[in-house]
Structures are given as C-alpha cells and as structure tokens.
C-alpha cells in the first residue's frame, strides 16, 4: 500500500523515537486512515460537534447576569444535559476513532500491502460496544480519581490511556483489559507519563493554530466595544459566529486525536517489548525459519 520502508511496531523505543515514528507513520498513512475514519466515525464526529456547539452556547449563559441562574433548577438541568451530551458523544467519538486507527495499525502490522478498509470497518462495528463500554468505564475511573484528589486521576489516566491498544492487540474482557493496562505500566509509569505529556502538548499546540480565528473574533469584538466605551459582557462575546468558529476549532482538535491514537500503539508495543520481548522472539523465529528453508 505504501512504497516507504515498513515501520516495525514491535520494538523498544525511547521517547524521541516514539514521537518521530508516530509522525513518520502518519505522513505515509494519514490519507488512508482518514478514508477509513470517514466510513466509521462520521456520525460520532458530527454528534460530537453538535454537542460542542450546544455546550458552548449553553455554558455562555453562566457568565450572563441576565441569563441562567445557578439557583434555577431548570437552568441547572439544561447545563447538566449539555455537559452529559458532550461527555457521551466525546467518548463515543474517541472510542470509534481509536478503534479505527488501532485496527488499521493491526492490519498494517499483519500485511501492509493487504489493508482492507471494509474489514477494518467491520471490526470496528463488531467491537463497538466493547470499546464504548471500555471508554465509559475508563473515563469514569479517571474522573473519579480527579475528584478524589486530582493526583489519583493522573495516576489512573496513564495506564488507562492504553486500554484501547490492549483491546485491539491482545483482546479480552473489559475488566481483563483494564487489569492488563495496570500490569503493563508497572515499573514504567513515569516514562509513559512523560511520553503522553509530550504527545498531549504537541497535539494541543497544533490544535491551538485552529483556535486563532475564534480568538481573533473575540478580541476584535472586545476592541470594538472598548473603542465605543461600552462594556462587553462575556456572554455577549459568545454569539453564533463565535460558536461556529469554536466548533470548527474543536473539529480540527478532534481529528488531531489521530496522532494520540497512533502514539498509543507505539507506547503499547514499547512497554510490551520491555516486559515480554515478543517482537525480538518473533524475529528470531523468523530468521530460524528462513535458514531452515534455505537448507
């Protein structure tokens, strides 16, 4: 499918190697991955955008003295519904995106010249409920950790960031996968945390570029209000134009999660190799078979 040298996922990597290989893989396969994502993630993606726009519009009322009141049960309920809608749609999209990208990588590892888009689509569909359940449970665990004392949330996030990769490359029940994630991370938590942090910062910085139009629009409205010596209410700055620009910015950010998904595969295999050396053993077996055939 691609004339470039095949990347070996099953090997140990340092932080720099993981970052470089992530972007190298995406340079060669971004178009193919996006083709599959269009077939698998279009509906979750659109739902996430609708939820983002709705939440932005509703939450802006919090800052409006004449808008929602925190003491009004109806207003509080509306904000809660907006948050819940955003939470569910984001998990839905996140699960489908990761499932698609990781199944693509699995097909690539098996045979880069025989990647079947429809096979990947079927695999994503067949495992949809597993990934959705895994996404919800992982999010709740991380959220609960943050509510406890913030630090537990960070601790949980590191191993749980690998659950989708474990589900694709190893399989198992939801509880088994979560258990494996904590086992896999044992002894390598700080290194994995650092890698995830760097990936997260890079994705955020790239995503920041797409936030510029919304930032410029907000600044220009504030500048006009200041020049007219009028007060610009925070809620007034969040009109439908801002909501639209912010939603487009979010769309770009959501697509950029593809980088995180690819990086998670490299992180998973790096940790797996450090614990089990399965890739090295496979290479030895392959060399042995080749010598046997030559004889």
Mean residue pLDDT? 85
Give the domain tally: 1
- Please tell me what the overall shape is: globular
Tally of helical runs: 12
Compute the CA-based radius of gyration: 22 Å
The total count of strands amounts to 0
* Major beta sheet summary: none
Low-pLDDT runs? 286-293
What is the end-to-end distance? 32 Å
Secondary-structure element series: HHHHHHHHHHHH
Fraction of residues in helix: over 70%
Structural class: mainly alpha
Percentage of β-strand residues: under 5%
Tell me briefly what this model is:
With 295 residues, the protein is an all-alpha fold. It has 12 helices and no strands.
How would you characterize this protein structure?
The protein is mainly alpha-helical. The protein has one domain. 81% of the residues lie in helices and 0% in strands. The chain is built from 12 helices and no strands. Helix 2 (73-110) packs across helix 3 (117-126), helix 2 (73-110) packs across helix 4 and helix 4 runs antiparallel to helix 5. The two termini are 32 Å apart. Mean pLDDT is 85; it is low at 286-293.
